[in-house]
Amino acid sequence: MLAFKGAAVKEEVCAADERSVEVGKEEQLKNTKTEMDEVREENDRLKTILAHIIKEYQHLQKQYFDVVQQEQSKRPLETTNPSDVEEPDELVSLSLGTSSTGQKKEDVISTKKEREEDGKGLTLGLGCRFEGTRKRSPDEHESNLCSDSSSEEANEEEPGEPRPPTEILMMSLGTGDDEVPQQLPVKKARVTVRARCDAPTMIDGCQWRKYGQKIAKGNPCPRAYYRCTVAAGCPVRKQVQRCAEDMSILITTYQGTHNHPLPISATAMASTAAASMHMSGSSASEQGMGEAIGSLSSSSAAITSLSGLNFGLLGSTLSARQQSSYLPIPSPSPASSYSTITLDLTAPPSSTSQLSQLGRFPWYSSTRFNFPSSESTVPASWSNGYFSHESRAYHDRPSQDSFCQSILQKAIDTTAAPNLNQHPLADTIAKAITSDPNFQSAVAAAVTSYVGDHRSRNGREGVTHGPAED
DNA sequence: CGCTTTTGACCTGCGC
DNA sequence: GCGCAGGTCAAAAGCG
């Protein structure tokens, strides 16, 4: 009996436990529902705020366009007559993160492009672009590579006709040494990068061979001359010199066009840099490299982290003080046939410029900065696409590749989820990215290749940039 | 041994 | 024409 009673008590206890567990679950469920409701409300609030911000942004954009149009109507000849395109000083602004004062016609042009992209819905990102880009047959691609400049220009004139980054780079392959004589009358493109770097030279994925060193006037630090040895006969050269005023700043000047595929690190940066140039206003959009930049469309617009860079042609966006400060050494062959683009990666991106850039580009996103760190992988669309061969060719550079891939992954993530929030995070990441010497030099190398290519293709009709005038 | 770096000489363009 | 400065060449030296 006692045993039976004990068993009955046990059953009651178990039943009570079950009831208490059920009650606990119900409470938990209730709590979860409550939390969900709160989150939902928060989400609604955020949506409302976002809608308000977008509305304000559109309003401001409209006002800006109105002003731009008024300016444009005031100076109709400047934009309609190609012969008048070259300004007296032939200075072109390619500022990234620097806001140029005064509304120039370059801004008008860039604004046009912005509007074109706005009209496209701004859904074109790295990831979708590579897969969605009009596929060319190998023959088509080859013919494009071998086609004369006129046909290429025709292609470029198509507004919004995107080119995959590697295609842009491959275009430079068509401008080998055989075209060098054609380039002679044309001003050569140079890209100068100022970056803080402790190493003797920046690692940019390319192989360089030092062929000379010289003490330049006005700078006690010797200037080193390097030649690209990735491919035989590659005409690309770079000069490396430390800043006289700040020895921690390495001034690297790239010159020429690679006649070989760039390493993936530089290749990827080409797209980002080009896109950034484009986004920055690509002031020379119609004449000069901006034309090619425009063809990039927003292929990698997500790398707006670059917006913090001071990316301008010498003398165009820099004040007199800045010029003396940014260019403590005499510009190489100032009177020769060079145009110079300066990438100043030493100055931290200003938050204001960041925000202004964000405001200008509504597809800017920094919401999903999912840096995959070491296990980052190139998206399938990439490995199947234009980058595959280069990945193999440069498999021995894992650190650079992973770094590059991280940025690329971020680019895809950010383009995939357009948003307007979290500017501080973008600022932080922008600083992190732009402070990386690998990135800096890769951008420079890529831009050099890119600009040089465009120049060689444009030939005589190409606009000239920078202070180096004939 | 082959490749890279060093370094003095040479070339070239520009200003006076 | 001369001098200067930047840029390049090429032989010698260094390095793995």
Task: Itemize the secondary structure elements and their pairings.
Elements: H1 2-74, H2 76-80, H3 105-119, H4 126-132, H5 138-146, H6 149-157, H7 165-173, H8 180-183, E1 188-196, E2 208-215, E3 222-228, E4 237-242, E5 249-255, H9 264-279, H10 289-296, E6 310-313, H11 320-326, E7 338-344, H12 351-360, H13 380-383, H14 388-393, H15 398-416, H16 423-434, H17 437-458
Parallel strand pairs: 1-7
Antiparallel strand pairs: 1-5, 2-3, 3-4, 4-5, 6-7
Helix pairs in contact: 1-3, 7-9, 7-17, 9-10, 9-15, 9-17
The chain binds a DNA duplex (16 and 16 nucleotides) through residues 209-214, 216-217, 223, 225, 229, 237, 239, 330, 332-333, 335-336.
Descriptive account of the structure:
- The chain is of the alpha+beta class.
- Among the domains are: 1-70; 188-275, WRKY domain (N-terminal domain of TfIIb), CATH 2.20.25.
- Helices cover 50% and strands 10% of the residues.
- The chain has helices at residues 2-74, 76-80, 105-119, 126-132, 138-146, 149-157, 165-173, 180-183, 264-279, 289-296, 320-326, 351-360, 380-383, 388-393, 398-416, 423-434, 437-458; strands at 188-196, 208-215, 222-228, 237-242, 249-255, 310-313, 338-344.
- It has a 7-stranded mixed β-sheet, with helices on one face.
- A hairpin with a 6-residue loop joins strand 2 (208-215) and strand 3.
- Helix 1 (2-74) packs across helix 3 (105-119) and helix 9 (264-279) runs parallel beside helix 15.
- It is elongated.
- Residues 1-9, 75-187, 273-337, 349-429 and 455-470 have low confidence and may be disordered.
- The chain binds a DNA duplex (16 and 16 nucleotides) through strand 2.
